[in-house]
Amino acid sequence: MCTDFVNLTAENLDNEHLCCIIRSKKPHQGIEAKRQWLSDRLKEGHVLRKLNVKAPVFIEYAPLETAWVPINGDNYYYLYCLWSSQKGKGYGKSLMEYCLADAKESGKSGICMLGAKKQKAWLSNQSFAKKFGFEVVDSTDNGYELLALSFDGTRPKFAENAKKQEIESKELTIYYDMQCPFVYERAMLIKQYCELNDVPVSLIHVDTLQKAKELPCVFNNWCVFYKGSFETVNLLDIAYLKRILKK
Fold first, then answer.
1. Separation CA 67–CA 33 (nearest Å)
2. Cα(83)–Cα(19) distance, rounded to whole angstroms?
3. What is the set of domains in the chain, with CATH numbers?
4. The pLDDT of residue 242
5. 144: pLDDT strictly greater than 80
6. Which run of H or E residues covers position 242?
7. How sure is the predictor about 35, in pLDDT bands with cuts at 50, 70 and 90?
8. Is 220 left (phi over 0), alpha (psi -120 to 50) or beta?
9. pLDDT at residue 87 above 90?
10. Which residues in 199-225 are b (16+ Cβ under 10 Å) and which e?
11. How many other CB atoms are found less than 10 A from the CB of residue 128?
12. What does the mean pLDDT of the chain come to?
């Protein structure tokens, strides 16, 4: 078992791979967009810790006050993503234990993350988190849940605007930020399909913390509305998009 982990810093950010999408030579716009986004977030206490191998084994979290999600709470960490492609080696456990230790040493009140009653793609494994003591502390009418591990009895909650789940526009509307390196290519894929098939679409770049905190639905880096109603936080492929457009 490899025990060589690396935390991204301002000094090594330009030279380290970002785990989700491994590219050795060819430029990748999603990776570069994520790298730029991270360069600003690291100053705010954002943490991306990874196994020092060319594989997606990492954890990413940030102080909830500066996390780009419509969740309210004091003195918490927000866990964006915990992913280990190398199962059965204890890497996920090591990464979660690092986050827990960091939170306790930093005097945090706890850690929270986005989940759902039924596990959804593009969200961290909530059954794994529950083994560490995470529990549901808030929920939306359409099945999304806020999980938290509290050290002091306090609980974060979804912002009221996150439970709205409606917008005035009836056309396909996607809010996105650059926290995930897959976002850029998926946004361009959807844009191209909609242009070729005369589907009206609004791709709204969430480019400030305030915009993220004020979103009318749950959000981890992406959310989709159609006919005025919230659909999903899952990144879309064309098959999924077609299912939504049939509604």
1. 17
2. 9
3. 5-159 (3.40.630.30), 162-245 (3.40.30.10)
4. 97
5. yes
6. helix 238-245
7. very high
8. alpha
9. no
10. eebeebebeebebbbebbbbbbbbbbb
11. 15
12. 93
